[in-house]
Design a protein that fits this description.
Layout lengths: L1 E5 L1 H8 L7 E5 L3 H6 L3 E3 L5 E3 L6 E4 L1 E5 L7 E5 L5 H6 L9 E2 L5 E2 L4 H7 L1 E2 L11 H13 L5 E2 L1 H13 L7 H12 L4 H10 L2 H5 L1 H4 L16 H14 L4 H9 L18 H4 L1 H10 L4 H18 L6 H10 L6 H16 L10 H14 L4 H5 L4 H24 L1
Parallel strand pairs: 2-5, 10-11
Antiparallel strand pairs: 1-2, 1-8, 3-4, 4-5, 6-7, 8-9
Helix pairs in contact: 5-7, 5-8, 8-11, 11-12, 11-17, 12-15, 12-17, 14-15, 15-17, 16-20, 17-18, 18-20
Bound molecules: adenosine-5'-triphosphate and magnesium ion (MG).
The site of magnesium ion (MG) has 4 residues, from loops.
Length: 409
């Protein structure tokens, strides 16, 4: 049996990037031999094992054949006769289809090293089109390696275009898609992920609500970049530059979806887009089964981001409603993430990237003022049940009035 390092570990070593997880391929072995050596099997579908000590993944060399729609529609064939070259040809990109033995001798039948040097993301074979997830993977790698100058090869983009048109993308499960989307959003240049998806027509299939924002104008006074799609990408870019967590990045991507529904006669204004966008945000959330914290924040940011921008003008009662909607007393972190998303939205505008955002501290101060209202004295006065709730609200409102007066003094 011969063992090789494959995939990302080889690619990233050649790129001089840190290697985190290592994938291995085993040629010339049977399942029985692997088990006899103490490897632990994982998953029923693939001949994949975990190393008894390191816990790293070891896959038997295999070939694949498409036998139906979607990811389930694959037939795998693993046997000791399958060669390293046969295993590598089923991989997505040439730069991911290299193997290395323990002497660092490279096996590179599909010229991954050449493409690494040329900074090109290129598919290995026409079988690329057999798994639509690869469209998302290529877009994700494009985002990750954009800073190194990588671009997608025209012929690979063409295949991605065909895949997007074929309807195959719809066969992807929410779980597989979300894994790629969430990882791509956490890259340093997530906007490139969206741009590549848009370029190959996949965005229109996966997130038509986001795709629809391109070509929709906004008032130049607030949005020098005019285009809503361009704005959305800039907001996402700001979120990445400010190292925001996934929740904030997801909310940034979806915050303006309502603008895609504005009737053209009303352009460039978007009256009540915060409200009209909610059902679209909900649909995208559910399509990808985004985690609960991402779903929640996207909806709240969608609904309230203009409140955030107008924070200093809000009446104390509106400010209180905002804080109540966020349950800022029990969920302070979520409110922080809302503030962050609003700030990214404000900066994701052409020429305004460095602007200050005094609303952020103002909102934080308001939350603190409301949170500092002590409940004990109200209990001592004998308030209980719903009356206690009302009394607390009254006190918080008083605190917010005082806060606003002090802030504007
Ligand atoms: P990362 O740094 O994101 O882990 P990676 O290239 O190691 O990048 P993995 O998802 O760990 O990506 O997959 C390991 C290897 O398996 C890839 O390099 C590629 O060769 C192959 N691979 C994974 N998923 C697919 C797929 N859907 N289609 C084709 N090949 C794939
Ligand atoms: Mg990997």
């Amino acid at each position: 049996m011969r063992i090789y390092k494959v995939g990302g570990a080889v690619r990233d070593r050649l790129l001089g990037k840190p290697v985190t997880d290592i994938d291995w391929v085993v040629v010339g072995a049977t399942t029985e031999e692997m088990l006899a050596q103490g490897y632990r099997p994982v998953g029923a579908d693939f001949p994949v094992f975990l190393h008894p000590k390191s816990g790293e993944e070891y896959a038997l060399a295999r070939t694949e054949r498409k036998s139906g729609r979607g990811y389930g529609g694959f037939t795998f064939h693993a046997s000791p006769e399958v060669t390293l070259e046969e295993d590598l040809i089923r991989r997505d990109l040439t730069i991911n289809a290299m193997a290395e033995d323990d002497q660092q001798n490279l096996t590179d039948p599909y010229h991954g090293q050449r493409d690494l040097e040329a900074r090109v993301l290129r598919h290995v074979s026409p079988a690329f089109a057999e798994d639509p997830l690869r469209v998302l993977r290529v877009a994700r790698f494009a985002a990750r390696y954009a800073e190194l100058g990588f671009t997608v090869a025209p012929e690979t983009l063409e295949l991605m275009r065909q895949l997007s048109e074929s309807g195959e993308l719809k066969a992807l499960t929410a779980e597989r898609s979300w894994k790629e989307i969430s990882r791509a959003l956490m890259e340093d240049q997530p906007r490139v992920f969206i741009e590549v998806l848009r370029e190959c027509g996949a965005l229109k299939v996966l997130m038509p609500e986001v795709d629809a924002l391109f070509g929709v104008p906004q008032p130049a006074a607030h949005h020098p970049e005019i285009d809503t799609g361009v704005h959305t990408l800039s907001v996402l870019e700001q979120a990445a530059q400010h190292k925001q967590p996934l929740t904030v990045r997801w909310a940034c991507l979806l915050h303006d979806l309502g603008k895609g529904l504005t009737p053209e006669e009303e352009w460039p204004r978007h009256i009540a887009h915060e409200h009209t966008g909610l059902k679209l945000i909900k649909a995208v959330n559910e399509r990808f089964k985004a985690p609960k914290d991402c779903q929640e924040l996207a909806l709240l940011v969608g609904q309230y981001h203009t409140h955030g921008h107008r924070a200093l003008e809000l009446k104390p009662s509106t400010l209180l409603d905002l804080l109540q909607s966020f349950d800022v007393y029990r969920r302070p972190q979520r409110f922080e993430e809302f503030i962050a998303a609003c700030e990214m939205d404000a900066r994701g505008r052409k020429g305004l990237e460095q602007r200050s955002y005094p609303q952020a501290d103002y909102l934080r101060g308001a939350a603190t003022a409301a949170r500092n209202v002590a409940v004990q004295p109200l209990l001592e006065k004998g308030f209980k049940g719903p009356e206690l709730g009302e009394a607390i609200k009254r006190e918080r409102l008083k605190a917010l009035k005082a806060y606003k007066e002090a802030a504007s003094a």
